[in-house]
Amino acid sequence: xxxxxxxxxxxxxxxxxxxxxxxxxxxxxxxxxxxxxxxxxxxxxxxxxxxxxxxxxxxxxxxxxxxxxxxxxxxxxxxxxxxxxxxxxxxxxxxxxxxxxxxxxxxxxxxxxxxxxxxxxxxxxxxxxxxxxxxxxxxxxxxxxxxxxxxxxxxxxxxxxxxxxxxxxxxxxxxxxxxxxxxxxxxxxxxxxxxxxxxxxxxxxxxxxxxxxxxxxxxxxxxxxxxxxxxxxxxxxxxxxxxxxxxxxxxxxxxxxxxxxxxxxxxxxxxxxxxxxxxxxxxxxxxxxxxxxxxxxxxxxxxxxxxxxxxxxxxxxxxxxxxxxxxxxxxxxxxxxxxxxxxxxxxxxxxxxxxxxxxxxxxxxxxxxxxxxxxxxxxxxxxxxxxxxxxxxxxxxxxxxxxxxxxxxxxxxxxxxxxxxxxxxxxxxxxxxxxxxxxxxxx
Length: 443
Hints:
The protein folds into two domains: 8-295, Mur-like, catalytic domain (UDP-N-acetylmuramoyl-L-alanine:D-glutamate ligase, 3-Layer(aba) Sandwich); 304-436, Protein-Tyrosine Phosphatase, Chain A (Alpha-Beta Complex), CATH 3.90.190.20. 40% of the residues lie in helices and 16% in strands. The protein contains 15 helices and 17 strands. Helix 4 crosses helix 5 (124-137), helix 7 runs parallel beside helix 8 (207-220) and helix 12 (351-361) crosses helix 13.
């Protein structure tokens, strides 16, 4: 064991100081890193999930279904909203600080040896992946669900050689400076997770993305299952849940309910259901348990009701904003005066496209603009100027997040609602304030 002394706080500080957005290492570098760690978790059934939007939700639903059948699961996810421990979960519970520190020290020992041999320090995401796999290997989890961080082809998670199943969720424009300017280019990066002979399940909603995925699967000899919107039928959308039935003859009369109001969650849940059916084929499954598992899911930052009149959503790219607007219209939430939108964004997102779509397609009462705590933040006033180009509704700029929340409260009046979106960093900041007592909402 490494002789350096670290507390949990020092360990998290060390990790946060590893640059997040430097050039990626090669797949060979990540594989060598994992090999030196002992190839932890490679003997488990690994499900690898990529996509622009919905991948975290699909992972969470799949985890819940597997757990409902008594399967132990590990889940590696990103980003975190409040605590970095959120990224490494065992049976839907983030690892505790003691476990976090233990696997940190195990990984750091290997990293020090690599550095002594002139091998580059793992990236932020690589380091956490190594910690996650070590944590999972130290348990008896049967399934490990890995969510990609960025893209797919070059992502550190893609160094896992032979997953049991690959999944690609909804694809839209995001991280264009890195992944490409077109749907086809981005789809090609996501499709980079497809392995020879490994089944691929994917969201077939976008024809351009679908064609790229099909072609890649064909080249890799990978069995592929396209999941279209014909696979389910939405029955009800409320502020608290979405209900849908499945199109297959076996359970077309069964109603599934997810306690998140976004319309897009029906597709995400259907992908998870079909993935679980594949993974558990040959076993006795209990449909009633699956219904209960989905109905009791809690996925933070995704149309999350944080207070009676405050919803936090992690929509942070054009595709997610379009899905958000679709859900708002299904709810009738933009009728009358409409909601107050609390918004912030990072500079490497297509924030003007997001803002234009919001202003042109959603009847909002007012927009309150703030800033996130990150070097890539877009100044509130700069964002405000963009909003004013596309709307005549009130636009209030408040640099401080607490002042922004107060302004949003004031704008909503007696009966309105506030929706927080534009950045997962913003979602995390608001949640941290609410949970830590830094702001007492009157929503």
